[in-house]
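Course exercise 7: structure representation. Students receive a sequence record and must write out the corresponding structure in token form. The form below is the worked example handed out in class, using ExeM/NucH family extracellular endonuclease (854 residues). Read each field label carefully; the graders check that inputs and outputs are placed in the correct fields and that the protein name is recorded exactly as given.

STUDENT ID: A-19
EXERCISE PROTEIN: ExeM/NucH family extracellular endonuclease
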Amino acid sequence: MRGHRKQWTGAVGAVALAAGAVTITAASAQAAPSPTAQVVINEVYGGGGNSGAPYNRDFIELVNKGTSAVDVSTWSVQYASATGTSWSNKTNLTGSIPAGGKLVVGGASGTTGASFPVDVSGGINLSGTNGKVALVNTQTSLPGTTCTTDCSDLPQVVDFVGYGTADDWAGTAAAPTASNTTSVSRNTSSTNTADNAADFKAGAPTPGTGGGGTPPGEPTEKTIAEVQGTGTSSPLVGQNVTVKGVVTAAYPTGGFHGFFLQTQGTGPEPNPSGASDGVFVFQSGGSSSPLDEDVVIGNYVEVTGKVSEYGGLTEITAAAADITDAGTEFSPVQPLTIAWPGTDSARESIEGMLMQPTGAYTVTNTYSTNQYGEVGLAFGDRPLMQNTEVAKPGTPEADAVVADNARRKVTLDDGASSNFTASSYSAGACGTRPTPCVLNGDLTPAYVSNDKPVRVGASVTFTKPVVVDYRFDLWRFQPTEQVVGPDNAESPAVFENTRTAAPDAAAINQRGTADLKVASFNVLNYFTDLGEQDPNCLAYYDRDDNGVTVRTGCGQRGAWDAADLKRQQDKEVAAINAMGADVVGLMEVENSAKFGKPRDTSLASLVGALNAKAGAGTWAFVPSSTELPPVDQQDFITSGIIYKPANVMRVDASRALGTQSGETQAFGNAREPIAQVFKKKYGKGDKFLFVVNHFKSKGSAGPFPGDEDTGDGQGASVTSRILQAQALRDWVPTVLGDTGTKAVVMAGDYNSYTQEDPLDVLYKAGYTDVGSRFDPNRYSYSFSGLSGSLDHILVNDVALAMSTGAAHWNINAGESVALQYSRYNYHATNFYRPDPYASSDHDPVVLGLTAFAK
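STUDENT ANSWER:
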């Protein structure tokens, strides 16, 4: 299994150098950590010789990513403890590193583990878990007492790796913690973005040698099954082997730079020994080197190379010269035709093997499609579920959902390691200012499409075989060759198109024809005060260095400029007008009072845009209540109510729960509930109280005991949301008494899945969730590949008697984020359309009502 971190392909590369065997001198080499550095620290291992260590000494491995040799005879590698300031623990280097070659600097040694060749023998005693390593273009110790926690920024530092709890690092954060059995290492392409957290992963140590990484020792002939073994890692790690097999998949482009090899004549059943007959071969020689000419799908080849485990993927690293044609006398490989195994051990037994997926598969995750060109799948006919959507938190039933998700989860990849939304926060990388921007904008991710959309809940049909793989901590299906967007011609799967032009009328009218329809809709930070208007605002930038949305620094949370707002608004107008509702509760609308304007300025702007499309006077908004708290107690986002005055009429003034917004009160960290009594415009009919809610989010802990995330599936701020539910429960009857109303409809984003404690407060008070009641197998939200509903319409018994049915209109949660206005111009393909799909990240919920309680 191999844990590949996606790479920034096509954006940064080695420093341009003249071809030939010219040696670059130390004085001309680029200094300070940079994504264009020619020589980088490739691997750090500090557990050598310790208990359980696979090798008997520490080491630091350097790699030359360029096309010319680099003289390092005046350089050094230096070490300090995780929070130390002394850099006297160092080794002076000698010689040069050839183009594409590695240099291994040996450190302190012990008695446990195998020995291995080193190019420079030193005595640095590295911590096995946490520390700091610097590659320096002088042999003078760094002035740690002067630079303390920013030694990585010194001009003489060519590269720098902080790992574990280190207080200094390159980029955004330190590399992972290492151990006696794991090093921190870049991927096989030695990808360098000058960000330790992004570039390094913990895995089995794999010391190479100078001159291109030729492994020591004479090779022995082995079968692929012997290389794989029956455990979680190969029993032959570190050994040179020669194997033969049929090429089942090849990736000359996209960053994998390798191919899969499978024992001739194997399949369609797994090897009864429990050892896999497939293995990944990484072809060494640099990311720009083409695959060997014999590496063609269907060819029978012989490979000699070193066995390793990188992030869990068993692989053989081989130079082009060590891959040869093995002839034409062989039996072809047949794809496995088995159900997706439910355990890691069973998956290990088919790792690297060709497979024709059979049975039902369902899309469960499209969020990372935009970034990595991958689609999360669930084996079976339903997506993976949030456990607290279907089971009470902390119960055995909830644990069973987690276990079921683990059994069914697999990811369809694109046969590449590209990060399609890789960004830089470094000045000069994108324009002249230190802002994030898309570096891979010349690429298009696989599996993103408007015409053939890939959506959560859609069924998947495999038309071609795939290879069972493990990368970046996930079990994956790799296509046999790279899938490239936007045409996705090599896709091994086709996806059901589950889009609908309007909410499900049958679900809304299942107990009779609705006289009125009400809805809940989160509009994803609809702000008419724009980021570009405030110099304190920082933006997310597109591939042309244009701001798209606000990132941080100011009160604005939405569109960056007028063009971005227009794109956002067009999609939301399309969604709301197609919803068919007469009353809509909106969440995440700008609270314009926070910007010194009338509170409803942004809400009025949205209504104006709706009417421009639907016709003058079609929509109106409910004015904000005078019961709201002072502006300084309100959030930058608020809730609003819009309605169609031709169909419904307001009764009495709007209301708000404005007495619980102090810092330690229920709504001190959430939006105040707002309400309005409505009735059918013409003819007789019962009034109903329409309440809009937006509870505290799960992402951060509030001020109350129990607000920290306890791990029971409910996230952070459970106590805050419970207090908000209790306050709402107690407030609504007072409004009913004031207005003489009996029916209650409460819509909103409760930030609570259906079985969680805050909603249980309202269930016990007599409220029913109509989404679960009338549309139980669809959900309003998708997070980390898990489906559930954060958006609910709750009704009391009187309103339940008026209810004809309800539907989740799945236009947002299941769509790729690439289609949102906030990702406009992120890719070479323009995916934006002014339609309802991906207008937000939450799906609307629509409820049908009769004019009278039955």
